[in-house]
């Protein structure tokens, strides 16, 4: 066919032009077609996605007043957790993940923890994962950097163009995955964009609701920020504490209702409250004992993201000896001294000497002002 100038219309020209740029883009980059389990999320800004996070993700165990989770990092990630929160402390000069203090609960070294994260991420190349590290001892970012380098996670970590980004300015999940920078790391204090740009300052990028609450109101008020909460991403602390000898401790006995899709004190209800108050859903939802509710926390996230809830494999079942109705058989007693009483739903703590020691350690921590990082 012979093309004369009068048949090559502007429409044909623009079609040819878009075809050319389209094919160039296709050949230049890898294109993730599924992002964090859903094709719809690939084109969504990281700042416009709701992620389930585990509060004190490393504090794993059963029948221990200092643990917040039943399952390890690998299981948490397999089940759909995409933000891992942790509390870092120095233990003999090494960064460990401890609860309030390393004498009370030592969850091992940051290096071992990050190694588990890396193994999972290597096996799951189409997922974006975030870490939120509470820098309890104000350790320099360069010290974290050397641990990330040892593990080989520094090369997977995303460094933003500037120290803080509005929620709308974050790249899409697809572009994070395509660029191979699909680990997003937030540090509560001492982040320094000039020395280690991938250790992102939390509070200039994220604001948080109150934490360690002991009533089920779960309001959505801004509790901590160091920026413009109107444009930042935000995190809801949706875990309920109970007072044990006047001190806050994780409360697995109410985790089914706390993690639920709906009802008083539920995660679903807090998301609705916050969405009504701010016109947008929370970005991160930190929970304890995430598997209580049989996936309800992931169902809440799917609804917030407008995607279907479709777990690839069944969610792990609760392990903690507890009086909650769906947790199955309740442990009768344990070596750590906590006994549950399923008959009336109340928990009967038999405080053995190790528990008194633990409580005194908590009390010491509180006196030292460590409550703010519990
Ligand atoms: C994590 O826990 C699962 C059981 O939920 C277990 O099979 C696996 O070996 C554990 N992985 C590590 C690295 O400890
Ligand atoms: C943050 O929450 C804590 C716990 O509920 C409360 O004591 C504190 O007053 C709150 N701070 C702000 C600034 O809202
Ligand atoms: C994402 O954007 C949609 C549309 O504006 C909004 O409804 C939703 O709440 C946003 N989600 C987050 C986490 O910002
Ligand atoms: C958990 O939910 C799945 C559906 O996601 C269901 O098939 C399973 O029976 C539930 N398990 C329990 C113990 O409720
Ligand atoms: C609890 O104790 C009773 C009586 O000793 C025993 O029959 C039952 O198997 C125990 N349950 C668990 C979960 O250990």
Automatic annotation (TrEMBL):
Residues 1-25 form the signal peptide. Residues 320-339 have a biased composition (Low complexity). Residues 315-339 are annotated as: Disordered. Keywords: Membrane, Signal, Transmembrane, Transmembrane helix. GO terms for biological process: lipid metabolic process. The chain crosses the membrane at residues 356-373. The keyword Membrane applies. Pfam families: PI-PLC_X. This is PLC-like phosphodiesterase.
């Amino acid at each position: 066919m012979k093309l004369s100038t009068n048949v090559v219309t502007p429409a044909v020209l623009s079609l040819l032009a878009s075809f050319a740029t389209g094919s160039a883009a296709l050949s230049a980059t890898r294109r993730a077609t599924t992002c964090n389990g859903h094709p719809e999320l690939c084109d969504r800004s990281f700042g416009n996605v709701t992620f389930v996070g585990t509060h004190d993700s490393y504090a794993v165990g059963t029948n221990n007043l200092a643990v917040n989770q039943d399952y390890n990092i690998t299981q948490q990630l397999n089940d759909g957790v995409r933000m891992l929160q942790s509390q870092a402390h120095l233990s003999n000069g090494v960064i460990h993940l401890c609860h309030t203090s390393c004498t009370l609960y030592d969850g091992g070294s940051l290096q071992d923890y990050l190694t588990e994260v890396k193994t999972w991420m290597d096996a799951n190349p189409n997922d974006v994962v975030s870490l939120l590290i509470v820098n309890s001892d104000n350790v320099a970012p360069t010290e974290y950097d050397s641990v990330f380098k040892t593990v080989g996670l520094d090369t997977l970590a995303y460094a933003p163009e500037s120290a803080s980004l509005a929620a709308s300015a974050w790249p899409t999940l697809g572009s994070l995955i395509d660029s191979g920078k699909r680990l997003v790391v937030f540090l509560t204090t001492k982040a320094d964009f000039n020395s280690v740009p991938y250790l992102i300052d939390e509070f200039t990028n994220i604001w948080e609701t109150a934490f360690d609450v002991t009533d089920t109101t779960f309001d959505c008020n801004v509790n901590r920020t160091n920026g413009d909460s109107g444009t930042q991403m935000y995190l809801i602390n949706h875990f309920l504490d109970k007072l044990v000898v006047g001190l806050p401790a994780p409360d697995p006995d109410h985790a089914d209702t706390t993690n639920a899709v709906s009802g008083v004190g539920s995660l679903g209800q807090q998301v609705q409250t916050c969405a009504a108050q701010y016109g947008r859903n929370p970005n991160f939802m930190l929970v304890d004992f995430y598997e209580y509710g049989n996936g309800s926390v992931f169902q809440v996230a799917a609804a917030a993201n407008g995607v279907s809830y479709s777990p690839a494999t069944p969610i792990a079942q609760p392990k903690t000896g507890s009086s909650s109705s769906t947790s199955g058989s309740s442990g009768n007693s344990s070596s750590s001294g906590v006994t549950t009483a399923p008959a009336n739903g109340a928990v009967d703590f038999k405080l053995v000497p190790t528990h008194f020691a633990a409580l005194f350690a908590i009390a010491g921590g509180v006196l030292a002002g460590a409550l703010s990082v519990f």
